[in-house]
Amino acid sequence: MILVLGATGKTGRRLVRTLRAAGEPVRAASRSGEVRFDWTDPDTWPAVLAGVSAVYLVAPDDPAPIPDFVKQAVQAGVGRFVALSARGLDHISEGAFQGMATAERAVRDSGVQWTIIRPNNFSQNFSEDLWHATLRSGRLALPTGAVPEPFIDAQDIADVAAVLLTSDGHHEQVYDISGPQAFTFGEAVATIAKAAGREIDYVELTPAEYQAELRAAGVPEAFVSELDALFTVLRAGHNAKPADGVRQVLGRDPVDFAGYVSKAVDAWT
Fold it and tell me: Where are the beta strands (DSSP E) in the chain?
């Protein structure tokens, strides 16, 4: 039995579908999905872990419960973790993305098999949540410094995770995964606008301007800080070069951004 945490999220729901299509037994767990799992409620953990041999771990923002969960999972018989992290995590300022950092440490120290996936920004951030509403409004404004990003399709992340969860030979590996080509956010928005047949503007902001817009929109201060840390790493160019993790694991090239846009175009029309 494979436990998929965050099973209603961008990668989790795709991973559940991919594993089941391959005939693998899957327990899809989340706060509102098939099986209830809540990081803040340890009473939900035992039933979710019963009979599980491998876990796809999507960390919560709060790092506090992660070590206890990993320890309990190992005691319940879990022998393999695949943890979703973020590319460039080593360059992110201390205090940001502590859930992911703690999850990496916890699986490394678990005493069982572990693999870590570190993807670039998801292509689906443009069409499913993070930047979707602003693109629909006709304007995306970010502090990227015109540094390119090799956006990764969430299905590629799911395909990689499926192999890591079901195949040997990936213990103690950290895979950086990205799309095959880097685009600036302005180029990405132009590609989306052309496909959607409508005008969408990209506006380059300073970090201070971006933080001010987020606060004006009522974004919680903790998330403002994390987004600032994310774009600081992006502007430094640490993640600009395409990574070869998808090819290492799957033996094929990742989905390119144009391919993603062609499938997601209804999200912006």
Answer: 2-5, 26-30, 35-36, 54-58, 80-84, 113-119, 139-142, 173-177, 201-204
Record the pTM.
0.96
Radius of gyration in angstroms for the set of CA atoms belonging to the chain, rounded to a whole number: 19
Tokens coding 61: 């923002």
Tokens of 240: 């600009």
Looking at this protein, which amino acid is placed at residue 143?
P
Q: Give me the count of residues in the chain.
A: 269
CA distance 201 to 190: 8
Tens of pLDDT, residues 168-216: 999 999 999 999 999 999 999 999 999 999 999 999 999 999 999 999 9
CB of 159 within 8 A of CB of 18? yes
The answer to whether residues 31 and 84 touch, using CB atoms and an 8 Å cutoff, is no
DSSP three-state, residue 142: strand
* Residues ≥6 apart with Cβ < 8 Å to 11: 58, 84, 122, 154, 157, 158, 161
